[in-house]
Amino acid sequence: MPDTTTAEDAGAGRRRLVSGPGLLLVWLYGVMVVGAVSRSAYQISTDFGRAPLAYSLSAAAALVYAFITYSLVRGGETARRAALVCCAAELAGVLVVGAWTMVEPGAFPEATVWSDFGMGYLFIPVILPVTGMLWLRRER
User: Fold this and answer.
1) Is the dihedral of CA 84, 86, 32, 66 positive or negative?
2) What whole-number distance in Å separates Cα of residue 57 and Cα of residue 19?
3) Mean pLDDT by 10-residue block, N- to C-terminus, for the chain (140 residues)?
4) Per-residue CA distances from 81 to 4, 40, 47, 63, 99 (Å)
């Protein structure tokens, strides 16, 4: 059978990102995946017509959290870069939606994961991507 191992995956070339504080990041992102998936699945399945944008944003946040969690666990330089880009996109989303909900509170009839800068989630949605980006840059 041919060897399909890439240079990145070989031996020490694939460095795990979940050591030390990275393990806490993976755990927190995992919790956010469960929270965002649960929230959006319930909201979408029970009353999507009430606030489709808010519920869709919560589902999108869940996908972003899941991808970052996967990338951190996978390790390697490509996964690190992908996680870094997703953390930046997550932060942009939190800042845009957070500002939007503060400026125009009626824009979202129901809260999203990122509403009010993640206040419903103890501000973890705004803190986590900053922490993640710092960790990922340090682990380069």
Assistant:
1) negative
2) 31
3) 47 58 89 93 92 90 94 89 94 94 87 89 93 86
4) 22, 27, 37, 17, 27
